[in-house]
Amino acid sequence: MENVMNLINLCRGHKIYLQTHNIPDPDAIGAAFGLKELLKRFDIDSTICYDGSIDKLSSSKMLDILNIEMYADEDIADDMKKDDYIICVDSQKNAGNITDLIGNEIAAIDHHPTTSVNAGVEYKYKDIRFFGSCCTIIAMYYMDLNISPSPDVATALLYGLRMDTLQFSRGVCSEDISVFAFLHPLTDSAKLKKLEMNNLDFSDLKAYGAAIENIRVFDYLGMVHIPFDCPDSMVAIVADFILSLIEIDIAVVYCSREDGIKFSIRSESDTVDAGWLIEEALRGIGSGGGHPTMAGGRIFEKNIAALGEYPDSEITERFLRVLHIPF
């Protein structure tokens, strides 16, 4: 664990960008917003940025209700320079879910394990701690500095924590509980209630329907191919849904995109790490990683041909081989 004052002093006199992973979720948004407002307490301005899109109803509501400003890559492309500082938030450079922008990635604050693809990256500041959310790390900065976040910041951090831990039902550690106790009295309860209500679009029902129709079960593994383009966030939600089945300990959900195939993995198994599983299953044709309980990955478009005439069968067999499940 680094002293956050080292990061604050590092940022002085530089143009700062806080880059979340692509297609940011509430945890990434809350962590970046909390860090932006903390830096502001020390007269350091920063800009929150991302690549991709805001495709989750909970994320777009968060930006609107809490008045959070985030800028897409194309909106800042003309402004960012090579010597501008980038702090990776809820991700790490070279991970499969973050675009390499022109600036200098000098720091990473993340709760995901470092994998083989980004293990060699050197930062001036690095804080990687395996908490339930990245928001937990940022909230602990406030606690360490004895600074009370504003109601909007406290609400964003608590909401990000609750969403990433599925309402404290997965990946929770003692630090997450301490942060909850710290943030809860400081939140705007009315805004938090608005954030937590009505977070599904009517069109999301199609993805649930596809999951019910297409699920295949192999021992304790549930495989689902959603046969149409589906937002990253919805793929993850369907994976949580599949994992709720009593017969399933590991859920693998994927859908095809113009740029490849997107995966979301969930594991309740004591012996199977979801991040390890996706990395091994996609070795040679894609990339992936994440936590022991949840992970994501992608097969690149250029490698889809390697799946052969029956891509669904090849994908399934890759996971079955890694798990040593007969097929």
Structural overview:
With 327 residues, this protein is of the alpha/beta class. It folds into 2 domains: 4-196, Alpha-Beta Complex (inorganic pyrophosphatase (n-terminal core)); 204-323, Diaminopimelate Epimerase, Chain A, domain 1 (Roll). It is built from 12 helices and 12 strands. It has helices at residues 4-11, 26-40, 57-65, 73-76, 134-144, 151-164, 174-183, 189-196, 204-214, 232-243, 274-281, 311-323; strands at 16-20, 46-50, 71-72, 85-89, 104-110, 125-128, 216-218, 221-226, 250-257, 260-267, 286-290, 294-300. The strands form 2 sheets. The chain has a 6-stranded parallel sheet with strand order 3-2-1-4-5-6. Helix 6 (151-164) runs parallel beside helix 8 and helix 11 (274-281) crosses helix 12. The longest helix has 15 residues, at 26-40. The termini are far apart.
Major sheet, described briefly? 6 strands, parallel
- Which second-level CATH architecture of the largest domain applies? Alpha-Beta Complex
Briefly note the CATH topology name of the largest domain: inorganic pyrophosphatase (n-terminal core)
Name of the top-level CATH class of the largest domain: Alpha Beta
- Could you spell the SSE succession in H and E letters? HEHEHEHEEEHHHHHEEHEEHEEH
CATH homologous superfamily classification of the largest domain = inorganic pyrophosphatase (n-terminal core)
Q: How large is the radius of gyration? A: 19 Å
State the helix count: 12
Uncertain stretches of 5 or more adjacent residues = none
Terminal CA distance reads 44 Å
User: What structural category characterises the helix and strand content?
Assistant: alpha/beta
What number of domains?
2
> Largest beta sheet: what is the strand line-up?
3-2-1-4-5-6
Q: What portion of residues belong to β-strands? A: 15-25%
The total count of strands amounts to 12
Tell the overall outline. globular
Percent helix, as a range, is 25-40%
